[in-house]
Design brief:
Chain lengths: ~290, ~120
């Protein structure tokens, strides 16, 4: 890719859009960065994925820092699940060398279709409306918190301390491994797998699931990005404007999210992702 | 004793939050400086990131790609530093279970990276 002011501005704008919509809609920037880099800027998909992973590290570090500060992160659970996610991320980054671009585009398109369907029909990926199948233990009794010092958080909305128990850890570890593979293979954070698994299977409250997923994504994407770095898929002129755009966009998006109609934004964005998924399929078959 | 355990847990949240903020800020500053140099010098072509093993030797050269590479390395190692902070904290708190989990995670990370980077 030639180093021109136009290209640098396009990359900065890509990062800005990813950071802005990513933080407004609660999706990782990968679903925006990879299609924009491959379809609009015509970069090879491996370089797009490597660049996306580095940008997601910047984005998720910013988000994870805020969740940690609000104590919406279960550090112990995150560290435990990362023992499975990290090998998955390494596997995904290593096997990409043997996967041809059209297959990657098709896999990415399929995942995009799932995300766009979830957004348009408001299926919860990162939303708060997954009903727990069993009731979570909610109590103000401090004794319970002290018995389990990490499995609680203070809910600002409900103005009470909520405690919870974690279930199905082996299944959670298995799914975390898959999330790691998908993350490095597609250049995404993997939150689309981690959050539903933690919430629906492991019974972790959604706010904590999002915070913990954000904490985990920093390490998962950094692991994958280090391997892409070593394999020569990371370019300074591509990654630098992308990171700067992502950080600025994420900061702006966090402020705009409170003022905007997120439901309609999700639907509009979901439709756009559907079109992008179709474009990825067309690119895989060399139609575009 | 139990209250102290809760307070210690909150301290870990604060330390990790701070380490992420500092890491991202440092990386952002380095990448901004590097990008400014890149734009002003129009260093066309030489835009591949400097490999990790060569970065230390070339660090004295104030070249755009080296400064950006350094920023990216700082960014990528920021999450790994979190685990090291957690190891120190769990060791200090004598939380043997999670000290073990963190050490396993560090070993998995080291083995995986060594295996894939060689």
């Amino acid at each position: 890719m030639e180093l021109t002011i136009t290209n640098l501005c396009s990359l900065f704008a890509t990062g800005l859009i990813a950071g802005l919509f990513g933080s407004m809609l609660g999706v990782g920037g990968g679903f925006i960065i990879v299609p924009l880099l491959t379809l609009v800027l015509k970069l090879p998909i491996q370089i797009a994925i490597g660049s996306s992973l580095v940008a997601i590290v910047a984005n998720s570090c910013t988000a994870a820092s805020a969740y940690l500060k609000s104590r919406l992160t279960n550090i112990r659970l995150g560290l435990l699940l990362e023992t499975a996610t990290v090998p998955g991320a390494v596997l995904g980054a290593v096997v990409i060398c043997w996967i041809v671009s059209p297959i990657l585009s098709v896999v990415f398109g399929i995942v995009l279709l799932y995300v766009s369907y979830s957004m348009v029909f408001h299926k919860p990926i990162l939303s708060e409306d997954i009903p727990p199948r069993i009731s979570m233990e909610r109590t103000n009794a401090s004794r319970r918190i002290f018995n389990n010092s990490d499995n609680y958080y203070y809910d600002l909305g409900e103005k009470q301390i909520i405690t919870y128990k974690i279930n199905s850890i082996p299944l959670g570890l298995g799914m975390s491994f898959i999330a790691g593979v998908l993350s490095s293979l597609l250049g995404i954070g993997g939150g689309i797998v981690k959050v539903p698994v933690m919430h629906s299977i492991m019974r972790v409250p959604i706010k904590v699931a999002i915070g913990t997923s954000s904490f985990m994504i920093t390490l998962t994407t950094a692991t994958g990005a280090l391997i892409y770095y070593h394999n020569g898929y990371i370019y300074a002129s591509i990654v630098a404007p992308l990171i700067l755009g992502v950080v600025v966009g994420a900061l702006a998006g966090a402020n705009l999210a409170e003022k905007s109609q997120v439901v309609w934004l999700r639907r509009g964005f979901g439709t756009l992702l559907f079109i992008t998924a179709i474009s990825m399929f067309l690119r895989a078959t060399d139609v575009i | 004793m139990k209250v102290r355990s809760m307070v210690k847990s909150s301290n870990l949240h604060n330390w990790l939050s701070l380490s992420l903020k500092v890491g991202v800020f440092l990386a952002f500053v380095l990448i901004t400086i590097g990008s400014t140099i890149l734009c002003t010098t129009k260093n066309v072509g030489a835009d591949l990131i400097v490999p990790l093993n060569e970065l230390v030797g070339k660090i004295t050269n104030f070249d755009a790609v080296i400064v950006i590479s350094l920023g990216i390395v700082v960014l990528l190692f920021t999450p790994i530093i979190q685990i090291i902070i957690a190891v120190v904290k769990f060791a200090f708190d004598q939380d043997k279970l999670y000290l073990g989990i963190c050490l396993v995670l560090l070993c998995v990370l080291a083995i995986s990276l060594l295996f894939s980077l060689v």
